[in-house]
Specification:
The protein is α+β, with helices and mostly antiparallel strands. Helices cover 40% and strands 12% of the residues. The chain is globular and about 50 Å long.
Length: 193
């Protein structure tokens, strides 16, 4: 059994590595960490232009239709470069949650925007320092209205849409559902920590 990456995956790895070596030196990471930018916009733009934000999003929704291994290859290189971009929150958290659990309409609305870089997504689970669990999630959804506070939310300051864990009042794991929230909609507020 061969556990090595395929030739295409190796090429993807080298391409991402070269791009990040050129466009994301440590000075870019420092600038973002020490400044007010939520992420390195020029690096993100390059990842979008390379089509990487659509890696595991199905072709019918504007993505490349590849898989988790390709996401892992990209994630490994982003981590290696300490790239300050919202790839993990937007692509392998929010986009994957929408792909797996979203309605057809939600997929049609958000997956093309996430694949094209038009929108950034995030996953809002925690409500403070405790682990997200049915007993610790107080945010609720009733009559189409979500009430509650989530923090920390990775890349929340940059995100346009969030997949939010809410307590629906059931028992155990059945108490938790996911709601999709347009963070730019009226009535939605956020503030940096």
């Amino acid at each position: 059994m061969n556990f090595d990456f395929s030739d295409d995956q190796k090429l993807l790895k080298e391409t991402v590595r070269k791009f990040l070596a050129d466009k994301c030196p440590m000075s870019v990471t420092r600038r973002v960490l020490e400044g007010d930018e939520p992420y390195a916009k020029e690096v993100w733009k390059g990842l979008v232009e390379m089509g990487l934000t659509g890696t595991a999003i199905p072709e019918e929704f504007g993505g490349l239709g590849l898989g988790a291994l390709e996401l892992c290859v990209i994630a490994g290189e982003l981590g290696r470069a300490v790239a300050p971009v919202p790839f993990s929150s937007s692509i392998y958290l929010a986009a994957e949650a929408i792909r797996l659990y979203g309605s057809r309409k939600q997929k049609e609305t958000w997956l093309p925007k996430l694949a094209s870089g038009e929108a950034i997504g995030t996953l809002a689970l925690s409500e403070g320092l405790k682990a997200a669990s049915p007993r610790n999630i107080k945010a609720s959804l009733s009559g189409g209205k979500l009430s509650g506070t989530k923090m920390p939310v990775p890349d929340g300051g940059a995100a346009d849409v969030a997949v939010v864990a809410v307590n629906t009042g059931g028992a155990g794991e059945q108490a938790i559902s996911l709601a999709l929230v347009d963070l730019k909609a009226a009535g939605v507020s956020s503030e940096p920590l």
